[in-house]
Design goal:
about 300 residues, alpha/beta, eight-stranded parallel β-sheet, two-stranded antiparallel ribbon
């Protein structure tokens, strides 16, 4: 038990790169909070920071990285191409690198399988889709601006479309998806794994108002372990084999979420969390011009 060292754990991607198992998520972090959160996380020992062009906080993430004093080559940075930028992949990565103040990112993801028309966000391009976007993203590793490429919010149906297209020469290294016991997506995770695609779980703590934090099974388990419910949720994800990117902006919680060494859930405890009956998604697709979730993840 004492030998469990999740804070040093990495997962090897299909490119051979090693992604740190625990990262800091920055979605919905308010301005001015992000810089301090990133700095705190890196000082505490995190080595993986997740952001996106759509979050509007890449510049602050970059400031936090600089302020931490941790060398760039010791930090895994993930960012994402925003939906209205699908026809402008090169400009998208250049914009992110400029905001972050770095020469390259470790992982660049297509944020959603929706090629949204920038002149009308309720419309999808008639002459372009995520397969075209991936064709362009595949060119990025050769530029040195991106070390690994992947996707996010892809279900089985869209992954099959992408992987079966002749233009798809590079299998995504990662599929970042919503993963917590109320949205466990076992079929989708198994599909990712079967194709050599690593899963990263976002909203891995559910969300602030989620039914998870009223769940008696989770609360009883956490109390029994002498751990926070958040720590138990993170251990559940790690023991299932995916990386986790818990979001917090308070130093104390950022530190607590990293206290994952020296203990683990028993197989029975993992099963208890697997068995939670409630279902909810933090992030749906009703705001997009196309449907991307088809209920094929369970």
């Amino acid at each position: 038990m004492a030998s469990v060292k999740n804070t040093q754990k990495t997962y090897t991607l299909n490119t051979g790169a090693k992604i740190p198992a625990i990262g800091l998520g920055t979605w919905q972090s308010k301005p001015n909070e992000v810089r301090d959160a990133v700095k705190a996380a890196l000082e505490i020992g995190y080595r993986h920071i997740d952001t996106a062009l759509a979050y509007g906080n890449e510049a602050e993430v970059g400031e936090g990285i600089k302020a931490s004093g941790v060398p760039r080559d010791q930090i895994w940075i993930t960012t994402k191409l925003d939906n209205p930028w699908h026809k402008r992949v090169q400009e998208g990565i250049d914009s992110s690198l400029k905001s972050l103040g770095v020469d390259y990112v470790d992982l660049y993801l297509m944020h959603w399988p929706s090629s949204t028309d920038p002149s009308d966000l309720k419309k999808h391009y008639p002459d372009w889709n995520f397969i075209d976007t991936w064709r362009e993203i595949q060119k990025l590793p050769a530029t040195g601006k991106v070390r690994n490429i992947g996707v996010s919010n892809f279900g089985i149906r869209n992954l099959e479309k992408l992987l079966s297209d002749p233009s798809c020469k590079t299998v995504p290294a990662v599929n970042q998806i919503e993963l917590h016991p109320n949205n466990p997506s076992p079929k989708l995770v198994a599909y990712n794994t079967s194709k050599g695609i690593h899963s990263t779980g976002y909203s891995c703590l559910g969300s602030t108002g989620s039914p998870l934090y009223k769940d008696p099974t989770l609360l009883t388990l956490a109390e029994k372990k002498g751990k926070t419910p958040q720590q138990c949720l993170l251990a559940w994800g790690l023991q299932h084999g995916w990386s986790v990117i818990p979001k917090s902006v308070t130093r104390e919680r950022i530190a607590k979420n990293f206290e994952l060494d020296g203990w683990e859930l028993t197989p029975d405890e993992v099963k208890q969390l697997d068995g939670l009956k409630d279902r909810f998604k933090v992030c749906g697709d009703s705001w997009l011009p196309v449907k991307v979730f088809f209920g094929d993840d369970e």
